[in-house]
């Protein structure tokens, strides 16, 4: 696996409408790089929704990088939460986000620092 190349980063207000903005950003960024964005878009949607719903702070950030093998996305909010996968019941309207990320991503994890909580995921790179 070669070194990661930064493809872009952006911040948005931490509100529900920003999730679509983050999806569109990753679509454009990966299109320019010639990478299929379908799985990455799904991961960004789930991580962005979690940051908006469960995070804190006024902003949410998205970082996108790639190498020959994978695309790495990181979503950061100002919170100090502990994102974790959980089992949603059939009648639950939510709670499946990190289960979806686990199913789609090769790896994912959580990092906390002075900026807040970052959830990252690496998705296998597919050419467009």
UniProtKB/TrEMBL annotation:
Residues 74-93 are annotated as: Disordered. Residues 83-93 have a biased composition (Basic and acidic residues). The keyword Kinase applies. Pfam families: HATPase_c_2. It comes from the Bacteria. PANTHER family: ANTI-SIGMA-F FACTOR RSBW (PTHR35526:SF3), ANTI-SIGMA-F FACTOR RSBW-RELATED (PTHR35526). This is ATP-binding protein. It comes from Actinomadura fulvescens.
